[in-house]
From TrEMBL:
One of the GO biological process terms: protein ubiquitination
Keywords assigned by UniProt, alphabetized: Coiled coil, Metal-binding, Zinc, Zinc-finger
Short name of one Pfam family: zf-B_box
Domain called RING-type: residue spans: 12-50
Domain B box-type: 93-130
Coiled-coil regions listed: 188-233
Aminoacyl-tRNA synthetase as UniProt keyword: no
Protein name according to UniProt: Nuclear factor 7, ovary-like
Family annotation (Gene3D superfamilies): 2.60.120.920, Classic Zinc Finger, Zinc/RING finger domain, C3HC4 (zinc finger)
Length: 453
């Protein structure tokens, strides 16, 4: 910035270049002698302040200070230009030997001079003249460019496929959002309908009870009114102090006589009708009973998996839900690991090869169990949970009594849950299709049970 300012201050206002033989006018302004001489021929005024100049340019005094400064600036510019040229030349000189770079070291991939070629640093290396090396590198780059150009369509195709997958994902997400909303709406409709039905039932019971109690209240109030009316009449007769008038009133008012002869106390015979308002389990277990009712309308349901075993020590229940260990030797007091396979009873299909499936099994307090698919399962050894495929210990440390298994044949995912609260335990990816439900458990006194609802 300072250099630019100095150059501007040392420039002639007419030619806008560094002063050449600067002269000073009486008004104090300075110009190149040649510039001001030409200017004064047409008008005898200072080009800057318009002050009158009575003399020709040849008679003006030289501004020696400006001249000296201008010459120094010109010299510096000359040196800069020479340095710039020398620097450009130096870029083509060997930094070690100041010799022109004429060779290309193929081994080190760098320009060198003739002296470098014979030096120890490049001993045993291969060299080429610059033009020949440039031609070889050009050929290599051309080949490389062709590789890049041939690879680009593949990348573009991959990018297109990825964009399509993004679109599919968004569409799938939208579809699932709609499906989720629809399924929740079905549950909402069911719950709203049952809410109205139960509230209407309560309302009807309330109306029936209130009607019965209102009838009872009317009878009580009628008896009370009759008693108070009779009380008033008797009291008015008793207020007569004259014996003759008293007896005359008594004999003439037959209503009192009739009431006395027919009066029967009713205070102990009238009973309060108590409320019979009762909604059964809906009073205390409403949510639980609604959940049980919703199980009848929820689709899809859990797989009603039936069990089977080829072991003589295993007995299958009539409904196919339970397996009982029936020891037949002295080894019955030991702990066994028994393998079981399950079939889906509703369609008599023993294996899952498509679709999405969910089933639950009660593991209880067993010290060892394996559940899942035949080749991909979740294992518990009494302390830790394991992924059968990778064999690694899982971070889950809960104590589920029932394990829920969710199989997605399309995504090849097998997921495990604590079936009591639906906490996710782990998801495994690798498995081979078709998949048979698989159980391997430590035998105890409790049967192996597949959960049905």
């Amino acid at each position: 910035m300072a250099s630019a300012s100095y150059t501007e201050d040392l420039s002639c206002p007419i030619c806008l270049t560094i002063f050449a033989d600067p002269v000073i006018l009486p008004c104090g302004h300075s110009f190149c002698r040649e510039c001001i001489t030409v200017s004064l021929k047409s008008q005898h005024q200072c080009p800057q302040c318009r002050a009158t100049v009575p003399t020709e340019g040849n008679n003006l005094l030289t501004n020696h200070i400006l001249k000296s400064l201008a010459e120094k600036v010109k010299e510096n510019e000359k040196l800069k230009n020479e340095y710039r040229h020398d620097k450009e030349v130096a870029e083509w000189l060997c930094p070690e030997h100041d010799e022109k770079l004429k060779l290309f070291c193929i081994t080190d991939q760098q320009l060198i001079c003739v002296i470098c070629c014979n030096g120890e640093k490049h001993e045993g290396h291969k060299f080429k003249p610059i033009k020949e090396a440039a031609a070889a590198v050009t050929q290599e780059l051309t080949t490389f460019l062709q590789q890049v150009l041939s690879d680009t369509p593949t990348i573009e195709s991959t990018a297109k496929t990825q964009r399509e997958e993004i679109t599919k994902t968004k569409e799938k997400s939208h579809q699932l959002m709609t499906q989720i909303s629809s399924q929740f709406e079905e549950m909402h409709q069911f719950l709203r309908k049952r809410e109205e039905e139960i509230k209407n039932e309560l309302k009807h019971k309330e109306e029936d009870d209130v009607e019965k109690m209102s009838e009872s209240l009317n009878a009580i109030e009628t008896a009370l009114s009759e008693n108070r009316e009779l009380e008033g009449k008797v009291s008015s007769v008793l207020e007569i102090t004259d014996p003759e008038k008293f007896l005359k009133s008594w004999t003439e008012d037959k209503t009192v006589v009739t009431a006395k002869s027919s009066f029967r106390p009713r205070g102990n015979t009238l009973k309060v009708v108590n409320t019979s308002l009762y909604l059964g389990p809906y009073e205390s277990h409403l949510q639980f009973f609604m959940w049980k009712e919703m199980l009848q309308v929820i689709k899809p349901r859990e797989e009603r998996v039936s069990l089977q075993s080829n072991s003589a020590n295993i007995t299958v229940s009539d409904d196919g839900r339970s397996l009982f260990f029936t020891p037949q030797s002295s080894k019955s007091q030991s702990i066994y690991h028994v393998n079981y396979k399950q079939n889906i009873s509703a369609s008599s299909v023993s294996q899952f090869s498509s679709g999405q499936h969910y089933w639950e099994v009660k593991v209880g307090q067993r010290e060892y169990w394996e559940v899942g698919g035949e080749n991909t399962f979740l294992k518990f050894d009494g302390q830790n949970y394991y992924d059968s495929h990778q064999g690694n210990v899982l971070a889950f440390n809960g104590s589920p009594q029932k394990i829920g298994i969710y199989l997605n044949c399309e995504s090849k995912e097998l997921s495990f849950y604590d079936a009591d609260n639906m906490t996710h335990i782990h998801t495994m990816l690798p498995y081979s299709r078709p998949v048979s439900a698989y159980f391997n458990m430590a035998v105890d006194r409790n049967p192996l049970i597949v959960c049905w609802y």
